[in-house]
Design goal:
magnesium (chains A, B); 23% strand; signal (chains A, B); homodimer; globular; metal ion binding (chains A, B); 5-stranded mixed sheet; 10-stranded mixed sheet; alpha/beta; 3 domains
Chain lengths: 694, 694
């Protein structure tokens, strides 16, 4: 398809030739989803659920210098986008939608073309003309063609697809679990730590292993093959690829965190169409990328203030006091939101002294801050739970090293700040089960469905600082939560109406490659002899995590874990799994669990470079890392991640798929697609926010 | 189950207590599958296809010294194994099978209990009494219990399962592709190199991505969670976990490569029951573990001579001149065997001057040594193809750097040795398609099914020496081969009768975590600035392997690869994938493809330690590795690997499974299980080796 696009038009050939001279421009890009001087958002290859709302934006760019300047940096004043069903005659977009043509925005930006340009501090200036068309939709399934005409005879082409309407809904409700950063290799390692095998056969398994639908998904984003958690969560929750740091928007070239072309998430669609009750649970701070991706829109995931406002008021709220000049899907707030990140809900300084907690309370939300108070909630009312100032403590710290809890600030009711030591903090399971109770009760009250996103965030956060045992503890807690959630759904008789999907947003380079005799390693005196403590193949042996410290791993007894079914019997055995290290900063490795959460394995030099910190693991051996030494953390990786589905519609997720298909297939299972006749976007709403059917 | 075994018997409690004092004995094990002083093979948790042949062996061990000596190192003379259906009264095994009790073997062995014992050179001596019962089977599906009684009141218990008979065969033929070492992360990376994506959507995909049955399998072995390729291939081809280095046997404590307790492979069963035509294809030397696992039996995969003999004569041949004193499944040779490894077919020295090539020819095999002669083969006759002395050249060397072919010795007809430069060498696709032609023709002649194993061996071999691009080239060649094979099966009208399963035997720690600007890296002068060339997240950018060298990766044209559909357009772009490195030796990394195959990244010091060799990558940066410096290669990893199934019965492989279930499920799809009535083990054979039905 696209091949012929670019081969059949003379204009495209011109552009291709121009780009050929900038073949080196890979390190940094002029603009994402914008291979030519003319850009269309949503870009070529976009796929929509029928009736899904989105903005259109077109840009014409002209570099003034650099390797491929155009027309002295002056873009054409005259440019227009044409759209139509594939094969039909194309129509100008304002005419197609019977809307007014917006005013042209004019601005410029600079970028470095590659590392040599950056080293020489030589930026390229680009002038831009742009237009945005807001809050549009396409109802008719099939292919669409788009053509941006600019600079005389230049053209940028795109092809979109609107997915077929589902014949009928297979499920009413959905629970989407995200194991942030959960690579397949980490699932395997978690099974090794949490379950006993005898002569090569596991005596129990992960709940994930029992999934009735199983597949894998490709996680890369529009502009890069390694994704961050914002745009990958966007793919899962809205069915669109985007660019690094972007939440449910395409990143335009303005450099601004608001006003970028947006698209509707499946949660927003569920609310709009079915008045779905929406729940968000995360062990991260709640303004973090994955929880934010449920219903917020910004090209800059760091806009925490803006994100929290959208949880309550939807995607058309003011940004930092600047009103947004567009309409968007009405959204009157999530029903349940539990997690960390109180920091983004309390006033930070005297200039911004509005507590968002009070704003939630004014809108009828119950407010809780402890595990105990979680159990006193009224299931019929909305609830905000902020169980810590920042990311919540990990399962390992809550269960194995509870003395670390004091370092996690929690709510101090005496002065309404997050400054008290954390003592009474829920985990993913407690938050998820309580959120389910509330969603179920509220859904039952008016017959509406519910949609929940629950994130095990610190799988990723622990991996970033190479704290592997804590990452695996979080993964086991996720598995335990999935098991408990499905048990609860079955008790409630909801499993036949509910789809449960467990997946990751990306991986981390990780694997287990042997075992380490940590006692030998600690006593050995040289780097070489320390590395001799690693046993590979036959000497990797059996999992020592499934026997008490004084029992051989070869003992075939299945011991009960003091931490519950599916967790290690011993978190700190002499023979640990030798694991980790595929995309990491430097470190000293001793293969032992850190008794306190690892903040980093490196220390910063005066030069700004980071070097392994011997004090992090005093008896460890040196590993050099394979990332730039200018960075302080490990990074994400390319690997496809698993999709583990249960309940109604689970088999929809079998086999290999793209990350965007997760969102699209959830929409298919819930039958969220609408043709024009069935659309509610233009209907009037009742006071309760529910849309009157036409 | 097992839990109660070990809790309910007083004897087990005694043993557990004894083991508790040897809790440290993880690095090395007294014996695999032998947690107590009494050992049963097949061990606890074994699962059989109904009618599958196997040997039983029992051992009683007594350590004379070390941390847990027993009775001054004297094992009891009096020991017996009891067997019966679960819940039924157990019967002594000789009586159960109405066979004679074998003579007791007596011997001893030594081992180190852990790294401290090894450092002090303090071995533990173990005396053993043992018995082997040969060529048995179980016909009735269900659970079986076993009890080894020894040393007075000591007991070792085991539970076995015989799988239910299939209701009917879903497929007649099977082709099992093994991507040796193919971790899921490598499949993802191969897709990135071989296929173009535009705005995050792939324009074409791997054939593996189109599988109609998809799952993952756990690869660990009996005695260790990191497997080698012998026992993992055994699980795939016979449905039993074994121990490192073992092929279709359990490893007893004799230390000998022959006479260990064997079990029948599904290929042997197919031949015995259906007179199946059997094909073996590998890019490795043919005596290597994966091809050997089709139909040979030894606890030491390095017994190449013994293995080659078994390809022709089955598992009861003499070992190194020593006759085997047991009966085994009649096996009159594979029908097709194509690969490398001529070294193991020609006389090595004057003492052993029998050419195995002549032995094959005497038995009616056609013999070929070049790609051209492959196409002259008579499809109705058996064929032996030896296309090189050792492992065959990789796809990358055959297609991108053909000048390297001269370094791969091939057949020299002038002196009947493998000493000529390789010029005319087939790849996996050519060998597999020709093997299919022969199997199909021979099967059609007598209405029998065919079974083929085809291995992309150098995925693994390149990973061991951290030659990542060559590993990915082999993976893309495998994918291309799977595509071509399925096309051919469809042409032949065989796809409805044929199951195609593609899987791996284990993974390698591997992932892609960014891109590398190799031009910047080459020019940078320090380790730190070289590492600055690595771009992560947004700066990872797009795959530069899918555009010509002078075109930006952002160009949306789908270029045709000079190497064919599904391969890179450019193997050596400026912006490469930054990849690798999770269980590696030291190296200097420059992220560029090596123009000659990487033999190793390290050099040996006088101390016997291995250090990164700067000459391997003169402009690279140093990476320290995370394995013992006493070893020269990367190792395998834990990660579950993918199972990609096509054709008849493909959905049988959906979801999570154990490696042994691959073999068992192939047997199920082919309906190889037999109850006593349907069994042919005791039948007379015709001269053509076909079993007369009773």
């Amino acid at each position: 398809m696209v091949k012929s696009h670019h081969k059949k038009t003379a204009a495209a050939a011109v552009v291709a030739a121009a780009l050929a001279s900038t073949a080196s421009a890979q390190t940094y890009r002029r603009a994402a989803a914008c291979p030519d001087l003319g850009c269309i958002y949503p870009p070529d290859q976009s796929t929509f659920v029928a009736g899904q709302a989105f903005d259109i934006r077109i840009e014409v760019q002209a570099p003034a210098n650099g390797t491929a300047p155009y027309n002295n940096g002056v873009p054409s004043e005259d440019f227009a986008l044409y759209i139509g069903g594939k094969g039909a005659e194309l129509e100008e977009v304002a005419s197609f939608y019977q809307i007014e043509d917006p005013i042209v925005e004019k601005y410029n930006f600079t970028y470095f073309e590659d590392l040599f340009y950056e080293a020489n501090d030589t930026a390229t200036l680009v002038n831009v003309h742009a237009k945005s068309y807001r809050h549009l939709t396409l109802y008719n399934p099939g292919k669409y063609e788009l053509k941006l005409q600019y600079n005389g005879n230049m053209e940028t082409l795109a092809e979109w697809e609107v997915l077929p309407l589902a014949e009928k809904a297979k499920a009413k409700n959905v629970i989407l679990f995200v194991g942030d950063g959960m690579a397949p290799s980490m699932v395997t390692a978690a099974r090794l730590l949490g379950h006993k095998s005898i002569n090569g056969k596991y005596q129990s398994k992960l709940k994930l292993d029992e999934c009735t639908g199983f597949g894998m998904q490709h996680t890369h984003s529009i502009d890069s093959f390694i994704t961050d958690s914002a745009n990958s969560a966007t793919a899962l929750m809205a069915g669109h690829k985007s660019t690094v740091n972007a939440l449910n928007t395409f990143t335009d070239s303005t450099g601004k965190g608001y006003g970028n072309p947006k698209f509707e998430t499946i949660f927003e669609m569920g609310r709009r169409i079915n008045n779905a009750k929406i729940g968000i649970v995360s062990t991260a701070y709640l303004a973090d990328a994955t929880p934010a991706a449920v219903c917020t829109h910004t090209s800059q995931r760091s806009q925490y203030d803006y994100i929290v406002d959208q949880f309550l008021d939807g995607g058309a709220v003011a940004y930092n006091g600047v009103p947004q000049n567009f309409s968007w899907t009405p959204f009157d707030g999530v029903d349940v939101i539990f997690g960390g990140g109180g920091k983004d809900f309390v006033p930070k300084d005297s200039n911004k002294n509005v507590s968002k907690i009070e704003r939630f309370q004014d809108r009828g939300y119950q407010f809780v801050t402890t595990n105990s108070s979680l159990f006193e909630l009224d299931h019929s009312k909305r609830a905000l739970g902020l169980f810590g100032e920042d990311t919540l403590p990990t399962w390992v710290d809550r269960h194995v090293f509870p003395e670390n809890l004091a370092d996690f600030p929690a709510w101090n009711p005496e002065n309404n700040t997050f400054t008290a030591p954390s003592t009474d903090v829920p985990g993913l399971k407690e938050m998820t089960l309580k959120a389910l109770d509330i969603l179920h009760t509220r859904s039952k009250a008016d017959g509406s469905p519910f949609m929940m996103m629950s994130e095990a965030a610190s799988i990723d956060k622990a991996m970033h600082v190479t704290d592997y045992p804590r990452a695996l503890g979080e993964l086991l807690e996720l598995d335990d939560t999935v098991r408990a959630t499905i048990d609860r759904l079955e008790e409630l008789g909801l499993m036949e109406d509910t789809l449960v999907v467990v997946t990751a947003d990306h991986g981390h380079g990780f694997d287990v490659y042997g075992s380490a005799d940590t006692e030998y390693l600690q006593q050995a005196q040289t780097n070489d002899t320390k590395r001799d403590a690693i046993g590979t193949y036959r000497e990797s042996g059996l999992s020592a995590y499934q026997v008490p410290a004084d029992v051989s791993p070869q003992n075939n007894t299945v011991f009960e874990s003091p931490y519950g079914k599916g967790f290690p019997v011993n978190w700190d055995p002499r023979y640990t799994a030798a694991m980790g290290f595929a995309a990491d900063v430097e470190q000293y490795e001793d293969f032992k669990i850190k008794t306190a959460p690892r903040k980093t394995s490196i220390r910063e030099l005066e030069t700004g470079r980071y070097r392994a910190d011997p004090e992090d693991s005093p008896n460890g051996f040196y590993m050099s890392g394979n990332l730039p030494t200018s960075g302080a953390q490990g990074v994400h990786s390319l690997v496809d991640v698993g999709v583990y589905a249960f309940g109604a519609g689970a088999s929809t997720f079998n086999g290999m798929q793209d990350s965007t298909q997760i969102g699209q297939r959830i929409a298919e299972v819930l039958s969220l697609g609408r043709d024009k006749k069935g659309d509610f976007a233009v209907c009037k709403r009742n006071n309760d926010g529910k849309c009157k059917k036409q």
